[in-house]
């Protein structure tokens, strides 16, 4: 297997990342054991989780867009030095629910702050570390938001409540990033059945790990 390996999952709201990740982790854990590290952004450590609480309240807290971008970047830096880098240094496989592409899409695109601007502040934070593989689950904004409303009413936060145009811009930014970095970012059609999405994702990850698919 190719180790260490850094894999990230991206997608707009309602793409089904959580369900897909849960299924894949159940498959990978018996194979990789302690060599598998799963984490999320923002979060993954006490400092970043505290920032997450500020960033993702259920109601709008009046946060400025640039403040939001800087807080996500700060949480990412702490996540990197406390979780991701130590794991990679020990030749582990790291799978993270979101990473820098989320900031490019949500703050650079959705907030209209500019992808290049967000890329620059994140370069300072990540110091050049990009994933080996990014899996982008794509779903039209209307369908994704309908899924959110139907399936996780108790977990809807202020980003979920943004206007449809915000989510559409986020998605279009993701799609542009995927076209520009298609060697790293692999797209999966998340309008398919959950079983098919999991199967397609399984194939990408097991290929990256050099694990034969049974």
From TrEMBL:
Belongs to the thymidylate kinase family. Residues 9-199 form the Thymidylate kinase-like domain. It is an enzyme of class 2 (transferase). It comes from Leuconostoc carnosum (strain JB16). GO terms for molecular function: ATP binding; dTMP kinase activity. CDD domains: TMPK. Its EC number is 2.7.4.9. Coiled coil: none annotated. It comes from the Bacteria. This is Thymidylate kinase. Keywords: ATP-binding, Kinase, Nucleotide biosynthesis, Nucleotide-binding, Transferase. GO terms for biological process: dTDP biosynthetic process; dTTP biosynthetic process; dUDP biosynthetic process. Phosphorylation of dTMP to form dTDP in both de novo and salvage pathways of dTTP synthesis. One of its GO terms (cellular component) is cytosol. InterPro entries: P-loop_NTPase (IPR027417), Thymidylate_kin-like_dom (IPR039430), Thymidylate_kin_CS (IPR018095), Thymidylate_kinase (IPR018094).
């Amino acid at each position: 297997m190719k180790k260490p390996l850094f894999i990230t999952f991206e997608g707009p709201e309602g793409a089904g990342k959580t369900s897909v990740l849960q299924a894949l982790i159940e498959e990978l854990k018996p194979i990789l054991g302690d060599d598998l590290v799963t984490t999320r952004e923002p979060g993954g450590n006490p400092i970043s989780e505290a920032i997450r609480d500020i960033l993702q309240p259920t109601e709008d807290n009046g946060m400025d867009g640039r403040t939001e971008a800087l807080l996500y970047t700060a949480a990412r830096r702490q996540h990197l030095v406390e979780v991701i880098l130590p794991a990679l240094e020990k030749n582990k496989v790291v799978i993270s629910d979101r990473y820098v592409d989320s900031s490019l899409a949500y703050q650079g695109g959705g907030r209209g702050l500019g992808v290049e601007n967000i890329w620059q502040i994140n370069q300072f934070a990540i110091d050049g570390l990009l994933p080996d593989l990014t899996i982008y689950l794509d779903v039209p904004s209307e369908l994704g938001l309908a899924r959110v409303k139907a399936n996780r009413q108790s977990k809807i936060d202020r980003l979920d409540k943004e206007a449809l145009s915000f989510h559409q811009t986020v998605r279009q930014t993701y799609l542009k990033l995927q076209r520009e970095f298609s060697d790293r970012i692999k797209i999966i059609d998340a309008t398919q059945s959950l079983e098919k999405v999991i199967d397609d994702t399984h194939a990408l990850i097991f290929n990256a790990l050099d694990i034969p698919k049974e």
